Amino acid sequence: MDTPMTTFSEGPEDPFAVRRAASAVLDDRGTVIGWSERAEALLGYPPKEALGRTALGFLIDFQDEDVVMDALAVCLRDGGWFGVVPARHRDGQRVELGCRARAITRGDAVCEWFLVAAPAEEVIQWERDRSVLDGLFRRSPIGLSVFAPDLSLLRVNRAISKFSQIPVEQHRGLHVSDFLIQRDSDTVERQLAEVLETGRSSIFTEQPCALRRDPGHEMFVSISAFRIKDPSGRILGVAQTVEDVTERYRARHRLALLNEASARIGTTLDVARTANELAEVAVPDLADCVSVDLLEPVARGEEPIQEVLGTVRRTAIRSVLPDTPRVMYPVGRTIHIPPESLQARCLAQRRPVLDTHQEGVTGWLPEDPERAERVLSLGNPSLMVVPLVARGLVLGLLSLWRWRRSEPFEEDDLTLAAEFASRAAVCIDNARRYTQQHDAALTLQHSLLPHEVPAHPAVEIAHRYLPADDTTGVGGDWFDVIPLSGLRVALVVGDVVGRGIHAAATMGRLRTAVHTLANLDLTPDEVLSRLDDLVDRLAAEQEPTDERFPQIIGATCLYAVYDPVSRQCALARAGHPPPVMVTPDGQVHLVDLPAGPPLGLGGLPFEAAELELAEGSLLALYTDGLIQARKRDVDESLADLCEALSVPTRSLEETCRVVGDALLHDRQTDDVADDVALLIARTRVLPKEKVATWELPVEPTAAAQARELAGSQLTEWGLEEMIFTTELIVSELVTNAYRYGGGPIGLRLIRDGHLICEVSDTSSTSPHLRRARTTDEGGRGLFLVAQLTERWGTRYTRDGKTIWTEQPLLATPAE
Question: N vs C: which end of the chain shows fewer Cβ within 10 Å?
Answer without folding.
Answer: C
